[in-house]
């Protein structure tokens, strides 16, 4: 058991109700119920709609994951759940369900950090993470560079976005271009037909005096909107594919440049990329090219494991059990702003 | 019949273990805490405390009873998902009982009255009853002033009625302000014993989520 713990993981920090089952580093089931379609017409995730959907999907998704994994709930070694960060009301549904299962089954409960889970999920794809791990996490909710000497107990933030998250910038630019929500996949698709060098959009926080690992995408988003509106107001056609490609190029350029610099500065010889934006094809290609040129090994999980899911939570839970970390108490709170340095919320002694 | 009852639809985090036999029933243990902000933290420890105080295990429980609201959503969901998860993990049936119905049952009144809880945003969740077991109107969510004509003079229970005495003019301090899981369990036991089926654990929100469809694209540049 100690080496290969069987763990159920629950994730409800945003709009995906995710439940995964893993045995050590092996993925047994990854069930997801998404409410993304219910949010599309609002142009973003509506917290109350997400929370209502979590309540409806929670127990059925847990049962589906257990059935798919072919394991009985009583065989589990632990239950893990995202304790934060995320939407407060959404987190609370998963945390409450996890507590009830842990209590009813008499199993230890692990309230874990969503961001650390995004890193840890790569163990299911590419085996044990090197220590330390350098991770670039990019999604609609976060954009962070993290150094993780120990994914279960020591994750250090090197930098983060000072305004919009990378995925948020994709959503906003997609709206400017009249594409739907979520914007990431739409821009990725359109950009393939465009010229990434057509327009030189600004690269935020890349000056010699800027914070080397922080990000800023708000200025870029505004620059794209200005550029498009100027064209439209002049009555000119907007080359949407070129705009999408040039915008995407600016985002991925900054992300990969800073991530590689962090690896070099910290003497880490590989880079892990996770989060929903890691599914972006241009980011994956550019990261591969630049990591190869810099002599770094790149680790990116498959797109289904980059977006929010329960398997990543189970993966971190399994690592907690394997390393003998202390479980959480039954009064574990959902913490919408849980700092990344708190990899899990252990019971107070 | 051994029922584990819980309700988190209002500021009350209430849990009870209720045993019912041929000649009536009784609560074996109960826990009542009033804290509108910590439902999620308080509920499972309260369940654990109630079971151990009663000296019973979850394995002996024959049914779960959960308050289905109406109530502020975040708290309401804690109880519902907890009951459903406990039920699924141990294959115990889960029954829903309206939170206002449980509050009404606890009054023991034999005359028409009204129950109201705080719905925030200057509104109340409310229902009218012919007696402690018979709901005749509601549940609904309204501003107290809008329903004053319907509720004035009636005996009124619940924190919502106490909050707006100008509308609930018959509010009585001897009637309960908060729902108790003991009443929830007793009402469920009475209905189940009489062969009346109880609904599942479906939330009563009564309001649509706050969300607005964006009104088109807003320009960044000014023209
Ligand atoms: Zn995420």
Q: What order do the helices and strands of chain A follow?
A: EEEHHEHEHHEEEHHHHEHEHH
| Proportion of beta-strand residues of chain B | 25-35%
Question: What is the rounded distance between the termini of chain B?
Answer: 72 Å
Strand adjacency order, main sheet of chain A: 3-2-1-4-5
Percentage of residues assigned to helices of chain B: 25-40%
Form type of chain B: globular
Largest sheet of chain B: 5 strands, mixed
What's the tally of helices of chain A? 12
Structure at a glance:
The complex is a heterodimer of chains A (349) and B (223). Helices cover 43% and strands 18% of the residues of chain A.
List the helices and strands and how they pair.
The complex is a heterodimer of chains A (349) and B (223).
Chain A (H helix, E strand, L loop, with lengths): L5 E6 L4 E8 L2 E9 L1 H4 L7 H23 L8 E7 L3 H18 L3 E5 H7 L1 H5 L6 E6 L4 E8 L3 E7 L5 H11 L6 H9 L26 H16 L6 H27 L3 E5 L6 H14 L2 E3 L3 H4 L3 H13 L27
Chain B lengths: L1 E6 L4 E10 L2 E11 L4 H16 L8 E5 L5 H18 L3 E4 L1 H9 L5 E6 L5 E8 L2 E9 L1 H8 L4 E2 L1 H5 L17 H13 L30
Parallel strand pairs in B: 1-4, 4-5, 6-9
Antiparallel strand pairs in B: 1-2, 2-3, 6-7, 7-8
The structure holds zinc ion.
Zinc ion (ZN) binds next to helix 4 of chain A.
């Amino acid at each position: 058991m100690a080496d290969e713990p069987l763990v159920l993981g629950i994730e409800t920090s945003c709009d995906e109700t995710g439940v995964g089952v893993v045995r050590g580093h092996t993925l047994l089931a990854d069930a997801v119920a998404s409410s993304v379609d219910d949010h599309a017409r609002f142009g973003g995730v509506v917290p109350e709609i997400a929370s209502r959907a979590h309540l409806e999907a929670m127990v059925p998704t847990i049962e589906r994951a257990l059935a798919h994994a072919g394991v009985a709930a009583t065989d589990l070694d632990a239950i893990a759940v995202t304790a934060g960060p995320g939407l407060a009301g959404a987190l609370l549904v998963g945390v409450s369900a996890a507590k009830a299962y842990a209590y009813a089954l008499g199993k230890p409960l692990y309230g874990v950090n969503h961001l650390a889970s995004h890193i840890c999920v790569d163990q299911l794809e590419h085996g044990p993470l090197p220590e330390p791990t350098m991770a670039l996490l990019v999604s609609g909710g976060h954009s962070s560079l993290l150094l993780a000497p120990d994914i279960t107990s020591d994750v250090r933030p090197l930098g983060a976005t000072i305004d919009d998250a990378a995925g948020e910038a994709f959503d906003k630019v997609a709206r400017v271009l009249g594409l739907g929500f979520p914007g990431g996949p739409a821009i990725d698709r359109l950009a393939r037909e465009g010229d990434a060098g057509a327009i030189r959009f600004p690269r935020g926080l890349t000056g010699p005096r800027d914070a080397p690992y922080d990000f800023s995408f708000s200025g870029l988003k505004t620059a794209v909107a200005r550029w498009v509106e100027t064209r439209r107001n002049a009555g000119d056609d907007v080359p949407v594919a070129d705009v999408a490609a040039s915008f995407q190029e600016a985002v991925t350029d900054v992300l990969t440049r800073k991530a590689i610099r962090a690896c070099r500065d910290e003497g880490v010889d590989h880079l892990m990329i996770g989060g929903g934006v890691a599914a972006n094809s241009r980011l994956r290609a550019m990261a591969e090219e630049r990591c190869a040129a810099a002599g770094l090994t790149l680790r990116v999980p498959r797109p289904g494991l980059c977006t929010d899911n329960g398997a990543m939570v189970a993966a971190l839970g399994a690592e907690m059990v394997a390393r003998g970390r202390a479980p959480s108490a039954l009064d574990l709170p959902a913490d919408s702003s849980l700092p990344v340095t708190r990899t899990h919320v252990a019971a107070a002694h | 019949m051994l029922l584990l009852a819980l309700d988190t639809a209002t500021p009350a985090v209430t849990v009870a273990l209720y045993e019912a036999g041929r000649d009536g029933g009784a609560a074996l243990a109960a826990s009542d805490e009033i804290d509108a902000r910590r439902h999620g933290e308080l509920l499972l420890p309260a369940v654990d405390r109630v079971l151990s105080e009663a000296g019973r295990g979850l394995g002996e429980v024959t049914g779960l009873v959960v308050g289905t609201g109406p109530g502020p959503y975040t708290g309401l969901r804690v109880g519902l998902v907890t009951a459903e998860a406990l039920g699924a993990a141990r294959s115990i049936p889960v029954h829903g009982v309206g939170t206002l119905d449980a509050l009404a049952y606890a009054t023991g009144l034999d005359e028409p009255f009204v129950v109201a809880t705080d719905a925030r945003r200057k509104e109340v969740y409310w229902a009218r009853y012919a007696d402690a077991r018979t709901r005749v109107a509601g549940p609904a969510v309204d501003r107290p002033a809008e329903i004053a004509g319907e509720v004035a003079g009636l005996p009124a229970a619940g924190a919502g009625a106490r909050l707006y005495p100008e509308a609930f003019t018959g509010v009585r301090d001897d009637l309960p302000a908060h729902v108790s899981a003991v009443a929830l369990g007793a009402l469920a036991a009475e209905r189940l014993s009489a062969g009346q089926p109880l609904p599942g654990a479906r939330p009563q929100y009564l309001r649509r989520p706050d969300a607005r469809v964006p009104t088109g694209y807003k320009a960044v540049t000014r023209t």
